[in-house]
Amino acid sequence: MTTPQTSGMTRGGRGRGGRLPRRRLTVADVTRVTPRLVRVRAEGDLTGWTADGPGAHLKVFVPTSDGGTAMRTYTVREFAPDRGELTLEFGIHADGPATRWASAGAPGDPLEISGQARGGFFPRGDTSRILLIGDHCALPAMSSILESLPAGIRAEAVVEVVALDDRIDVSGPAQPDVTWTTESGRPGEQLLTAVRSMPYPQEPTEVWVGCEAGVMREIRRHLLAQGARTARSASSPSAVTLHTRAYWKLDTANHSDHDTGEDD
Ligand SMILES: Cc1cc2nc3c(=O)[nH]c(=O)nc-3n(C[C@H](O)[C@H](O)[C@H](O)COP(=O)(O)OP(=O)(O)OC[C@H]3O[C@@H](n4cnc5c(N)ncnc54)[C@H](O)[C@@H]3O)c2cc1C
After folding, report:
1. C-alpha 99 to ligand 1 mean position (Å)
2. Which residues does 25 contact at the CB level (< 8 Å), separation at least 6?
Protein backbone atom coordinates (compact mmCIF):
# COMPACT_ATOMS: atom_id res chain seq x y z
CA MET A 1 0.00 0.00 0.00
CA THR A 2 1.19 3.47 -0.67
CA THR A 3 2.07 4.75 2.77
CA PRO A 4 -0.91 6.03 4.73
CA GLN A 5 -0.47 9.46 6.20
CA THR A 6 -0.09 9.70 9.93
CA SER A 7 0.22 13.43 10.24
CA GLY A 8 -0.52 16.63 8.44
CA MET A 9 -3.67 18.59 8.72
CA THR A 10 -6.22 20.84 7.28
CA ARG A 11 -6.54 22.72 4.04
CA GLY A 12 -9.01 25.54 4.20
CA GLY A 13 -9.87 25.14 7.91
CA ARG A 14 -12.57 23.10 9.61
CA GLY A 15 -16.21 23.17 8.67
CA ARG A 16 -19.25 22.79 10.89
CA GLY A 17 -18.82 20.63 14.00
CA GLY A 18 -15.03 20.67 13.65
CA ARG A 19 -15.18 18.56 10.48
CA LEU A 20 -12.71 19.11 7.71
CA PRO A 21 -14.26 20.14 4.40
CA ARG A 22 -15.27 17.41 1.94
CA ARG A 23 -13.20 16.78 -1.17
CA ARG A 24 -14.53 16.25 -4.64
CA LEU A 25 -12.61 13.63 -6.63
CA THR A 26 -13.07 12.15 -10.09
CA VAL A 27 -13.12 8.41 -10.73
CA ALA A 28 -10.08 7.46 -12.82
CA ASP A 29 -10.77 3.76 -13.18
CA VAL A 30 -13.07 1.01 -11.97
CA THR A 31 -11.93 -2.60 -11.79
CA ARG A 32 -13.99 -5.68 -11.02
CA VAL A 33 -11.35 -7.48 -8.91
CA THR A 34 -13.54 -10.51 -8.21
CA PRO A 35 -17.24 -11.18 -8.90
CA ARG A 36 -18.21 -9.28 -5.73
CA LEU A 37 -15.43 -6.75 -5.28
CA VAL A 38 -15.13 -3.49 -7.23
CA ARG A 39 -12.02 -1.34 -6.91
CA VAL A 40 -12.46 2.38 -7.57
CA ARG A 41 -9.43 4.61 -8.04
CA ALA A 42 -10.21 8.30 -7.80
CA GLU A 43 -8.06 11.35 -8.38
CA GLY A 44 -8.15 14.93 -7.21
CA ASP A 45 -6.62 17.44 -4.87
CA LEU A 46 -5.74 15.49 -1.74
CA THR A 47 -3.27 18.03 -0.39
CA GLY A 48 -3.50 17.92 3.40
CA TRP A 49 -6.03 15.07 3.37
CA THR A 50 -5.03 12.46 5.96
CA ALA A 51 -5.67 8.81 6.77
CA ASP A 52 -4.51 7.71 10.19
CA GLY A 53 -3.11 4.30 9.38
CA PRO A 54 -4.04 0.92 7.89
CA GLY A 55 -7.77 0.24 7.76
CA ALA A 56 -8.77 3.89 8.34
CA HIS A 57 -12.28 4.73 7.17
CA LEU A 58 -13.86 7.71 5.51
CA LYS A 59 -17.30 8.76 4.36
CA VAL A 60 -18.36 8.71 0.74
CA PHE A 61 -21.35 10.68 -0.54
CA VAL A 62 -23.17 8.95 -3.37
CA PRO A 63 -26.32 9.77 -5.33
CA THR A 64 -29.64 8.12 -4.44
CA SER A 65 -32.39 7.11 -6.86
CA ASP A 66 -34.62 9.98 -5.66
CA GLY A 67 -32.01 12.60 -6.55
CA GLY A 68 -30.60 12.96 -3.05
CA THR A 69 -27.26 11.98 -1.52
CA ALA A 70 -26.42 9.10 0.82
CA MET A 71 -23.43 8.97 3.14
CA ARG A 72 -21.71 5.60 3.66
CA THR A 73 -18.52 4.34 5.34
CA TYR A 74 -15.61 2.86 3.35
CA THR A 75 -11.97 1.98 3.96
CA VAL A 76 -8.91 3.64 2.47
CA ARG A 77 -7.37 0.84 0.43
CA GLU A 78 -4.58 2.92 -1.06
CA PHE A 79 -3.71 6.55 -0.66
CA ALA A 80 -1.02 8.33 -2.67
CA PRO A 81 -1.22 12.00 -1.66
CA ASP A 82 1.67 12.99 -3.92
CA ARG A 83 -0.21 11.67 -6.96
CA GLY A 84 -3.61 12.81 -5.66
CA GLU A 85 -4.97 9.23 -5.74
CA LEU A 86 -7.33 7.40 -3.42
CA THR A 87 -8.44 3.81 -3.94
CA LEU A 88 -11.47 2.20 -2.33
CA GLU A 89 -12.89 -1.30 -2.66
CA PHE A 90 -16.64 -1.91 -2.63
CA GLY A 91 -18.04 -5.33 -1.72
CA ILE A 92 -21.09 -6.03 -3.85
CA HIS A 93 -23.59 -7.39 -1.32
CA ALA A 94 -26.01 -4.74 -0.20
CA ASP A 95 -28.98 -3.41 -2.08
CA GLY A 96 -28.07 0.15 -1.21
CA PRO A 97 -26.93 3.36 -2.90
CA ALA A 98 -23.18 2.93 -2.33
CA THR A 99 -23.18 -0.60 -3.73
CA ARG A 100 -25.31 0.48 -6.71
CA TRP A 101 -23.01 3.45 -7.32
CA ALA A 102 -19.87 1.28 -7.35
CA SER A 103 -21.48 -1.44 -9.49
CA ALA A 104 -22.32 1.10 -12.18
CA GLY A 105 -19.18 3.22 -11.67
CA ALA A 106 -17.18 4.51 -14.62
CA PRO A 107 -14.22 6.82 -15.22
CA GLY A 108 -15.26 10.44 -15.04
CA ASP A 109 -17.85 9.95 -12.29
CA PRO A 110 -17.60 12.45 -9.45
CA LEU A 111 -16.89 11.09 -5.95
CA GLU A 112 -17.31 13.23 -2.90
CA ILE A 113 -15.47 12.16 0.27
CA SER A 114 -15.13 13.34 3.86
CA GLY A 115 -12.25 15.62 4.86
CA GLN A 116 -10.14 12.85 6.35
CA ALA A 117 -10.06 9.14 7.23
CA ARG A 118 -9.86 7.90 10.81
CA GLY A 119 -9.77 4.77 12.93
CA GLY A 120 -6.70 3.03 11.51
CA PHE A 121 -5.24 0.05 13.34
CA PHE A 122 -1.87 0.28 15.05
CA PRO A 123 -0.83 -2.83 16.99
CA ARG A 124 0.75 -2.46 20.42
CA GLY A 125 4.52 -2.76 20.48
CA ASP A 126 4.43 -5.91 22.63
CA THR A 127 2.05 -7.90 20.45
CA SER A 128 3.39 -11.10 19.00
CA ARG A 129 0.25 -12.18 17.16
CA ILE A 130 -2.46 -10.37 15.21
CA LEU A 131 -5.66 -12.23 14.39
CA LEU A 132 -8.18 -10.57 12.07
CA ILE A 133 -11.70 -11.93 11.76
CA GLY A 134 -14.01 -10.39 9.22
CA ASP A 135 -16.42 -10.70 6.36
CA HIS A 136 -16.03 -9.64 2.77
CA CYS A 137 -16.83 -5.96 3.29
CA ALA A 138 -14.07 -5.80 5.92
CA LEU A 139 -11.57 -7.37 3.51
CA PRO A 140 -10.21 -3.98 2.31
CA ALA A 141 -9.38 -3.13 5.93
CA MET A 142 -7.94 -6.57 6.64
CA SER A 143 -5.79 -6.50 3.47
CA SER A 144 -4.44 -3.05 4.38
CA ILE A 145 -3.66 -4.08 7.96
CA LEU A 146 -2.02 -7.37 6.96
CA GLU A 147 0.14 -5.63 4.34
CA SER A 148 1.34 -3.16 6.97
CA LEU A 149 2.49 -5.66 9.61
CA PRO A 150 6.23 -6.13 10.03
CA ALA A 151 8.11 -9.37 9.47
CA GLY A 152 8.36 -11.45 12.63
CA ILE A 153 4.81 -10.87 13.86
CA ARG A 154 2.40 -13.80 13.57
CA ALA A 155 -0.34 -12.47 11.29
CA GLU A 156 -3.50 -14.44 10.63
CA ALA A 157 -6.95 -13.77 9.24
CA VAL A 158 -10.21 -15.63 8.93
CA VAL A 159 -12.35 -14.19 6.15
CA GLU A 160 -15.88 -15.13 5.20
CA VAL A 161 -16.78 -14.63 1.55
CA VAL A 162 -19.96 -15.50 -0.27
CA ALA A 163 -18.11 -17.83 -2.63
CA LEU A 164 -14.49 -18.85 -3.07
CA ASP A 165 -14.15 -16.91 -6.32
CA ASP A 166 -13.98 -13.80 -4.13
CA ARG A 167 -10.66 -14.83 -2.62
CA ILE A 168 -7.80 -12.45 -3.33
CA ASP A 169 -4.06 -12.59 -2.75
CA VAL A 170 -3.12 -11.03 0.58
CA SER A 171 0.56 -10.56 1.27
CA GLY A 172 3.00 -8.49 3.28
CA PRO A 173 6.28 -8.64 5.20
CA ALA A 174 4.59 -10.69 7.96
CA GLN A 175 3.57 -13.33 5.37
CA PRO A 176 0.00 -13.50 6.62
CA ASP A 177 -1.84 -16.77 6.86
CA VAL A 178 -5.40 -16.32 5.59
CA THR A 179 -8.18 -18.88 6.06
CA TRP A 180 -11.15 -18.45 3.72
CA THR A 181 -14.62 -19.62 4.66
CA THR A 182 -17.80 -19.34 2.63
CA GLU A 183 -21.13 -18.02 3.79
CA SER A 184 -23.48 -20.70 5.08
CA GLY A 185 -26.42 -19.86 7.29
CA ARG A 186 -26.65 -16.22 8.28
CA PRO A 187 -23.83 -13.91 7.10
CA GLY A 188 -20.90 -14.20 9.51
CA GLU A 189 -21.97 -17.53 11.01
CA GLN A 190 -18.81 -19.23 9.72
CA LEU A 191 -16.67 -16.61 11.47
CA LEU A 192 -18.36 -17.40 14.75
CA THR A 193 -17.88 -21.13 14.17
CA ALA A 194 -14.18 -20.57 13.41
CA VAL A 195 -13.64 -18.49 16.56
CA ARG A 196 -15.47 -20.99 18.76
CA SER A 197 -13.37 -23.85 17.45
CA MET A 198 -9.93 -22.21 17.69
CA PRO A 199 -7.74 -22.58 20.78
CA TYR A 200 -7.70 -19.47 22.96
CA PRO A 201 -4.43 -17.56 22.26
CA GLN A 202 -1.71 -18.09 24.84
CA GLU A 203 0.64 -15.34 23.62
CA PRO A 204 0.02 -11.54 23.61
CA THR A 205 -2.51 -11.27 20.81
CA GLU A 206 -4.64 -8.53 19.34
CA VAL A 207 -7.87 -9.74 17.86
CA TRP A 208 -9.55 -7.43 15.34
CA VAL A 209 -13.14 -8.17 14.34
CA GLY A 210 -15.13 -6.50 11.52
CA CYS A 211 -18.43 -7.99 10.39
CA GLU A 212 -22.23 -7.90 10.81
CA ALA A 213 -23.30 -6.25 14.10
CA GLY A 214 -25.03 -9.27 15.70
CA VAL A 215 -22.24 -11.70 14.81
CA MET A 216 -19.60 -9.24 16.01
CA ARG A 217 -21.36 -9.18 19.40
CA GLU A 218 -21.39 -12.96 19.64
CA ILE A 219 -17.68 -13.21 18.79
CA ARG A 220 -16.95 -10.46 21.31
CA ARG A 221 -18.96 -12.16 24.03
CA HIS A 222 -17.24 -15.49 23.39
CA LEU A 223 -13.72 -14.04 23.62
CA LEU A 224 -14.51 -11.84 26.64
CA ALA A 225 -15.86 -14.91 28.45
CA GLN A 226 -12.53 -16.63 27.83
CA GLY A 227 -10.56 -13.78 29.37
CA ALA A 228 -9.93 -11.32 26.54
CA ARG A 229 -9.96 -7.59 27.32
CA THR A 230 -11.23 -4.78 25.17
CA ALA A 231 -8.63 -2.37 23.81
CA ARG A 232 -9.96 0.22 26.27
CA SER A 233 -9.56 -1.95 29.37
CA ALA A 234 -6.47 -4.04 28.50
CA SER A 235 -3.43 -3.20 30.57
CA SER A 236 -1.40 -6.39 30.87
CA PRO A 237 0.95 -7.08 27.96
CA SER A 238 -0.03 -10.73 28.15
CA ALA A 239 -3.66 -9.91 27.48
CA VAL A 240 -5.64 -10.95 24.47
CA THR A 241 -6.87 -7.55 23.35
CA LEU A 242 -10.08 -7.12 21.38
CA HIS A 243 -10.86 -4.50 18.72
CA THR A 244 -14.41 -4.98 17.49
CA ARG A 245 -16.53 -3.00 15.05
CA ALA A 246 -19.77 -3.64 13.22
CA TYR A 247 -19.24 -3.11 9.49
CA TRP A 248 -22.95 -3.35 8.76
CA LYS A 249 -26.18 -4.55 10.34
CA LEU A 250 -28.83 -6.86 8.95
CA ASP A 251 -31.89 -5.02 7.61
CA THR A 252 -30.38 -1.63 8.44
CA ALA A 253 -29.14 0.97 5.98
CA ASN A 254 -26.04 2.99 6.89
CA HIS A 255 -25.44 1.36 10.27
CA SER A 256 -23.31 3.45 12.65
CA ASP A 257 -19.55 3.20 12.23
CA HIS A 258 -19.23 3.69 16.02
CA ASP A 259 -20.81 0.35 16.93
CA THR A 260 -18.15 -1.61 18.80
CA GLY A 261 -20.63 -3.78 20.71
CA GLU A 262 -19.91 -2.12 24.05
CA ASP A 263 -23.63 -1.82 24.83
CA ASP A 264 -23.86 -5.62 25.01
C1 LIG B 1 -15.44 1.30 9.48
C2 LIG B 1 -16.14 0.71 8.27
C3 LIG B 1 -15.43 0.51 7.09
C4 LIG B 1 -16.07 -0.08 5.98
N5 LIG B 1 -15.35 -0.30 4.84
C6 LIG B 1 -15.93 -0.93 3.78
C7 LIG B 1 -15.19 -1.19 2.59
O8 LIG B 1 -14.04 -0.78 2.42
N9 LIG B 1 -15.82 -1.86 1.59
C10 LIG B 1 -17.11 -2.30 1.71
O11 LIG B 1 -17.63 -2.94 0.78
N12 LIG B 1 -17.85 -2.02 2.81
C13 LIG B 1 -17.29 -1.36 3.83
N14 LIG B 1 -18.02 -1.08 4.96
C15 LIG B 1 -19.42 -1.55 4.99
C16 LIG B 1 -20.36 -0.58 4.27
O17 LIG B 1 -20.28 0.69 4.93
C18 LIG B 1 -21.80 -1.13 4.35
O19 LIG B 1 -21.88 -2.39 3.74
C20 LIG B 1 -22.81 -0.16 3.78
O21 LIG B 1 -24.03 -0.36 4.46
C22 LIG B 1 -23.07 -0.32 2.28
O23 LIG B 1 -23.89 0.74 1.86
P24 LIG B 1 -25.04 0.60 0.80
O25 LIG B 1 -25.52 1.97 0.49
O26 LIG B 1 -24.61 -0.27 -0.33
O27 LIG B 1 -26.16 -0.23 1.58
P28 LIG B 1 -27.16 0.32 2.74
O29 LIG B 1 -28.14 1.28 2.17
O30 LIG B 1 -26.35 0.81 3.90
O31 LIG B 1 -27.92 -1.02 3.16
C32 LIG B 1 -28.92 -1.61 2.33
C33 LIG B 1 -29.24 -3.04 2.81
O34 LIG B 1 -28.09 -3.86 2.59
C35 LIG B 1 -27.70 -4.52 3.80
N36 LIG B 1 -26.21 -4.55 3.82
C37 LIG B 1 -25.35 -3.51 4.05
N38 LIG B 1 -24.09 -3.92 3.99
C39 LIG B 1 -24.13 -5.26 3.72
C40 LIG B 1 -23.12 -6.24 3.54
N41 LIG B 1 -21.81 -5.96 3.63
N42 LIG B 1 -23.52 -7.50 3.27
C43 LIG B 1 -24.82 -7.82 3.17
N44 LIG B 1 -25.84 -6.92 3.32
C45 LIG B 1 -25.48 -5.66 3.59
C46 LIG B 1 -28.26 -3.65 4.94
O47 LIG B 1 -28.52 -4.45 6.09
C48 LIG B 1 -29.54 -3.10 4.32
O49 LIG B 1 -30.58 -4.03 4.49
C50 LIG B 1 -17.43 -0.46 6.06
C51 LIG B 1 -18.15 -0.21 7.23
C52 LIG B 1 -17.50 0.37 8.34
C53 LIG B 1 -18.29 0.62 9.60
Report:
1. 8
2. 42, 43, 44, 46, 86, 110, 111, 112, 113
CATH architecture group of domain 16-113: Beta Barrel (2.40)
Which pTM was predicted? Answer: 0.94
Is there a contact between 58 and 117 (Cβ–Cβ < 8 Å)? yes
pLDDT of residue 120 exceeding 50: yes
Ligand 1: atom nearest CA of 102 is: 26
Cβ of 248 below 6 Å from ligand 1: yes
Does the pLDDT of residue 17 top 90, yes or no?
no
Please give the Cα distance from 264 to 262 (Å, whole number): 5
**Residue 256 Cα: closest atom of ligand 1:** 53
- Residue pair 160/188 in contact (Cβ under 8 Å)? The answer is yes
Check pocket membership of 166 for ligand 1, CB cut-off 6 A: no
Domain edges within the chain: 16-113, 129-248
Confirm or reject: Cβ of 91 under 6 Å from ligand 1: yes
Strand, coil or helix: 63? strand
Ligand 1 contacts CB of residue 253 (under 6 A): yes
Closest CA to 28 of 107, 102, 145, 116: 107
Cα-to-centroid distance, 129 and ligand 1 (Å): 28
Cα distance between residue 67 and residue 44, in whole Å: 24
61 lines ligand 1 (CB under 6 A): no
Q: What is the pLDDT of residue 7?
A: 31
Q: Is 129-248 assigned to CATH 3.40.50.80?
A: yes
The sign of the CA dihedral 210, 211, 214, 219 is negative
